[in-house]
User: What shape does this take?
Amino acid sequence: MSENVALTERRRTAYLFLLPSLILLVLVAAWPLIRTIWLAFTDATLSSSHFSWVGLDNFKGVLTDPDWWGSVKNTMVFTGISVTLETVGGLGIALLLHREFMGRGILRAAVMVPWAIPTVVSAKMWSWMFNDNYGVINDILQKIGIIHGPLAWMADNAILSMAAVVTVDVWKTTPFMTLLILAGLQSIPLQVYQSAAVDGASGFRTFFKITLPLIKPALVVAVVFRLLDALRIFDLIFIMTNNSNDTATMSVYARNNMIGFGDLGYGSAASTLVFAFIAIFTIMYLQFSRLNLVGGSSEKVSR
Amino acid sequence: MRRSLVESIGLWFAVIVVSVFSLFPFYWAVVSSLKEPSSMFQVEYWPKVLEWSNYSSIFKEQPFGTNIINSLIVASSTVLLCLIVGVLAAYSLARVEFRGRGTLLALILAVSMFPQVAVLSGMFELIKSMGLYNSWGGLTISYMIFTLPFTIWLLTTFMRQLPRELEQAAIVDGASSWVVLTKVFLPLMGPSLVTTGLLAFIAAWNEFLFALTFTLTAESRTVPVAIGLISGASSFESPWGRIMAASVIVTVPLVILVLVFQKSIVSGLTAGAIKE
Assistant: This one.
């Protein structure tokens, strides 16, 4: 009897403890999201406080705008290429850091430096390196003879400017991939490798038959985190190639319309589409991965 | 373990390539920041003379000192608010069984996946209506959307790892949840709080979209916005020397922080993704 009372008291306190967080999350997440979706059905602008309901007009406008579809394509290309490179790079560096050699600690520290640098700062550093006249990248490429004249990296060439922003993203976020994959590698018991060696398995065979399957859970989580991050990319692209249709992503398109042109309603419709897109992606992931949310000690998040 | 010569050469080649790729951009920013404006426009791989004028002019020609203070205040108050509120929520989620716990955790995780732009216009309206536009408070409150979910998530993960016997003894003695949390758990959670707080601090310090949209005047900008918007006399010439000096100023403390707390940060990043 008294145990039940204690349990009820504990539950009541638990709800009380949750309250501040829930209030904050409703205030800064649920409410602004609902308002944004609602504004998407109006002709609200930044300059006037009067607006009226316009139904689906904004969505029709966005969905028939070639620039929107351009931004969808840019987002896909950016996400696809950068996450692939980051996964391969992260896996390679993690395998390197998993070996024992002198100076491993120093390399691990060096690898973390790009992660620590704010995105805006990385974007500026690399913009300067990619500068067409005085940039160090053109200088190096010319000295080793890959190109014969300076390239205008972030001007009107769609492929070059995409290559530039992908390079910076890969530089900045591969450390995150590396660290997650390395944690996965370190959780593999050494005996597994020893018995593989006893059985005479080759390096390649050990990697594909043992290492890769065992780090798959960590790898999948890392890739999904990065995918979700890349799909909403804003700051890097905004700083490096502002207003260029060659690289503008969905988030850049939405903000430019919303704040840049002051068209709150239209921009909100674009934001709502970004949200719907990422929500569908997330739900699909949650469905497929059967997340273990309530705990349990030795379970991995995904399997 | 003995390695063949070819293997050793390959290993060292990889180590050098990875190190150069990771560190060169930062090195280049330092070199460029120490050049005088006239020699800015020749590529030199090490500085011949050290010229500190970029560092002094960044503080003279714009309120960069104020921007740093803004960033420090916003990031610190974000951490403080997040940890206080998050620790309470994490206790409930990690230590008390109640219906809907799994759903709640899933919802909190879902919030951390929100694209910031999806709430931008609603948040803009909210910040304005609360009278917090162009202020520290507006940024701190809006930053909760991306810092609070992972704070709760990480602290819940860490708190689950504490042994059950600890609280059971206290509960048998008739201690309330508040006492269990503050007297039994919190003293053990120092490292977890440091890890979580650091990650929240870095996230808030680096944030750009909200800070760009919810501030108006140069004096109220945070560091990333200030650096992002540095421009020269004409729109065709950016003052790269000053931009690099500002970049180095805000990066050095962050790099030191990350190197000092390397273990703790790695444990936080991986605990968020992989639960052991």
Remarks:
- Residues 46 and 130 of chain B are 51 Å apart (CA to CA).
- The mean pLDDT of chain B is 87.
- The two ends of chain B are 29 Å apart (CA to CA).
